[in-house]
Amino acid sequence: MLLKLLATNYNEPMLINIAIVEDERADIEKIEDFLHHFSRENNVKFNIIVFNDGSNFIKEFTIDKFHLVLMDIEMPLLDGISASKKLREIDKDVVLIFITNLAQYAIKGYEVDALDFAIKPLSYHDFVLKLKKGLRHVKKEKFLYLKDADKTIINISINDVTYIEVDRHYLIIHLIDNTSIRNRGSMKEMNNELKNFGFSLSNSGYLVNLKYVERIDCDSVIVASNRLLISRRKRNLLIKAFNNYIIGETNND
What we know:
Blueprint: E1 14-21, H1 25-42, E2 44-51, H2 54-60, E3 68-72, H3 80-90, E4 95-100, H4 103-106, E5 116-119, H5 124-137, E6 143-147, E7 153-157, E8 161-167, E9 170-175, E10 180-184, H6 187-194, E11 199-203, E12 206-209, E13 213-216, E14 220-223, E15 226-229, H7 232-247
Parallel strand pairs: 1-2, 1-3, 3-4, 4-5
Antiparallel strand pairs: 6-7, 8-9, 8-12, 9-10, 11-12, 13-14, 14-15
Helix pairs in contact: 2-3
């Protein structure tokens, strides 16, 4: 099997570009301190840029400049909701998390596809839960380099892989467009490569992308409308991996 993963290896520091859009100096210092603490504990590198107002942020923002935006809602000149609406006109995919004093403001985040919100005063534990969830959704370039039936080398984004199944000495990589690629290889090797990127075994024959899990039943899991068997030994591990995925933890089954 020709397999190459083009991504930041979880054994090497990742570099994540973060914008803090906040007008209160004390809150800025607290967020920066939390990020530095998390960076030391989790083998992640952050490039942090601070903006004191939504208008300054929008003036300097360009598409793909940041992986994650931490946006205060109550700011002078241009508030967080208004700034986020302008942000979405430029970049529809950057991960956005609101920071606010009032929970009722956060409901407006749905209008601009905010991933989540954190309530002030911030605690490290709550902030880390939101941060991990945000990092889980940050786009990272991850590709499988495979050979198709004609021996042509192709690259497939793992975000497009719904599940992988074993067929004797081959793996069948199922994609979100309902196509599949048959490639020689072992499930053990593939699992080792992908388990830290949101994949988990449902049994020895299926490796599922947790992004596409719709439901977990007693003896099966629904993945992109496909019902796959779960072994008794793997069921609890799959449920744990899925729960961790939802809150942004790395899957380490």
